[in-house]
Amino acid sequence: xxxxxxxxxxxxxxxxxxxxxxxxxxxxxxxxxxxxxxxxxxxxxxxxxxxxxxxxxxxxxxxxxxxxxxx
Length: 71
Hints:
The chain is α/β, with parallel strands linked by helices. It has helices at about 20-25, 50-60; strands at about 1-5, 10-15, 35, 40-45, 65. It has a domain at about 1-45. The protein is built from two helices and five strands.
């Protein structure tokens, strides 16, 4: 499983692994959801990196796609 952080104000989508420190620290806020998109975006979970990439290409084609390298 991977997580995608969709950042609407920054116009970027970042894919993270489950072990990434950013995934461990994620939390829902007034403007950013978990498993739902809010005004500033949100965190969505996908079975594979390729499914996350396909989602970004179909829903947010103008956004930058970043693959996180942290752990």
